[in-house]
Amino acid sequence: NEPAQMILNVRAGYLVPGLAPDAVVEVPCAVDAAGVHPLPVTPLTGASLGLVQQVKAVERTTIRAALERSARLAVAAFAEHPLVDSVTVARQLLAGYRARIPQVAALFDADPS
After folding, report:
1. Quick one: the chain helix, strand, coil %, rounded to 5?
2. pLDDT tens by residue, 20-44
3. Euclidean distance between the first and final Cα of the chain, in Å?
4. pTM here?
5. Helix or strand or coil: residue 2?
6. What value does the mean pLDDT take over residues 51-79?
7. CA dist 105 → 34, 40, 68, 88, 95 (Å)
8. Dihedral sign from CA coordinates of 74, 77, 82, 86
9. d(C-alpha 9, C-alpha 100), whole Å
């Protein structure tokens, strides 16, 4: 029952203006017997906010790709990532994951795209 401060993944709620309330963010939190209490964070602006929004969009597309077993969406998720410079590279990345990780290959094997 000792209070502590920890960095935890929590729903953004209204902690980070510019992100969807259900987006997951990693922020400092106070933790006590009553639960987890996210602490206020400095609002993101400009390029920083844009980068976080872009990566959150990649995460959402990645989740859809897995749920729908869609290689097309998996390629789209890779292509949306700021460190991937083309759809060609995105296709190569997915092919590499499929070749090296049986669970990824199995997830997308039934998908014709």
Report:
1. 50, 20, 35
2. 999 999 999 999 999 999 999 999 9
3. 52
4. 0.82
5. coil
6. 96
7. 43, 41, 14, 19, 9
8. positive
9. 29
